[in-house]
Amino acid sequence: MSRPSPMTLLLISLISYGLLIGPFTAYMRNKPIEEKLGYLPSIKLLKPLSADQKELAGASLVFKVLMYYGNAVGKAPGGAVLAEQPDLQGMSRLLHGAVQLDPYNMDAYYFAQGFLTWDARQFKVANDLLEYGMKYRTWDWYLPFFAGFNHAYFLKDYKKAAHYYNLAGDLSGEDLYKSLSSRYLQESGQTDLAIAYLTGMVKTAKNQAVKRNYEVRLKAFREVRRIELARDRFAAAREGLPVSVDQLVHSGYLSPAPVDPYGGRFFFEPDGKVTSSSKFAFGQRK
Amino acid sequence: MLNIMKITLKGIFRDRVFQGIMALAILFLFIPSAASLSMRQVTELSITLSLSLISFILLLLSVFLGATSLWKDVERRYTFAVLSLPINRSSYLLGRFFGLALFLLLTSALLGAVACLVIKAASVIYPSERAIVWSWLALALMFSTLKYILLVGVAMLLSTVSTSFFLPVFGTVCAFLASGITQQVHEYVYSPAAAHAVSPLLKPAVSVVYYLLPNLAGFDLKVNAIYSIAPDPAGLAITACYFCAYTGILLGGAALLFNRREMN
Questions:
Q1: Using omega within 30 degrees of 0 as the cis cutoff, is the peptide bond preceding A256 cis?
Q2: Predicted pLDDT of residue A175
Q3: Are A143 and A152 in contact (CB under 8 A)?
Q4: Count of A–B CB contacts within 8 Å?
Q5: Residue in A with minimal Cα distance to B59
Q6: What is the ipTM of this complex?
Q7: Is A274 helix (H, G, I), strand (E, B) or coil?
């Protein structure tokens, strides 16, 4: 048997590479997103392994979550509505790992606050994470601002919310947050509170996937506010709450008809509160 | 000894190590765009990436240059020629060490300057909420360099007893990995939480390892530089003294062993 020349070997390998690279990249691109988030080794193991690069390891975990999330939102059919929720638990696990490696990493807190509250509805987990961050980022007013919002809007714990808003006011030197604690902390102002918070988040969001998420939510809450105002006008004029949102539309109090960007249908709860069948989250449509 | 230092530096440049570093330093150009992916801390991320890259380059240099410097000389039988000159073995070893240390300092200063430009660029495009404290960045770089100079000492000590370069290279890498966690392990073993979980025999063993291995965790000032957190001056002073004492022990031990080594 004659020995293959190096040139033949190189040529065969190049051709094989050329044939393989297409299917290989296609396979990598279309890999299910669940697989991409992957398995995170125990932090007890990650810490020593990352040696003196803990901050880098923390940042890379945050980016893994960001890429995964960006991809999940990007893949959503029809632009806005996700077919199913992304792996929120996995995202939370990675971000918790990130702040254990680098407790100062603001990206992790910022992003976790975004999805742990609105999407995963894990308020205690979110607040515990913010508390943990406050121990390190002692100068940062964002963390108490987030915690204040969570307590006011989601947990209805106005005493604690006022405490955090005051802290945010002290740290930022702006009276706005202090006034927030007194202005909005009542049940009637809940939607306004959410709109004020979301408008701020949209303005300051840099990442496109995150920004889009906040924009969709803001749009939903503006629609809710519109319905609430129409409901109040209706109640004042007819001395009774409307039976349905459709009734408001048909009787001319609400025009144009409201659209839930999450794909749900708005309705009134027995106490007159406006809500949606989408529960203001992707993949929850009934 | 000064001559050996010069020869060491010349040798490193002749081996095109510097060009290799410059090739790796091209990565600095990508730092601002990579950092811009961050949502809330672009400047902080650019500092993280810059310091990590410098740290990585210095690690490679200290492990490979430190571990191969003596070994290569012995292998090439170059030591015979040098040691026949009126120069003792200790001076030769120290000359090699200080030559390498000087090279690490030069590299760190140069890469540090590049990093400052990169960080400045990132902070101009996306201003940080917290002002960058450049002196703490310089301190972080300096202590990182000291750490890797100490690691060169470890590599040289190991290469005085080894006939191949495997022990120095892998030994130094292991010492580096272990040195970052000895503090945590020691604290855990002596914490109340571990009182029942850890055997009493293990405690003295952990203590021996803790005092034997270098404690490099104290040299890590990245967090202070990245998030502009004031370092403790007394802590820095004691870390610098620790560096001098530990490096002295390493070099003393290495010189002693090198003097007794039989050259065939």
A1: yes
A2: 62
A3: no
A4: 65
A5: A52
A6: 0.76
A7: strand
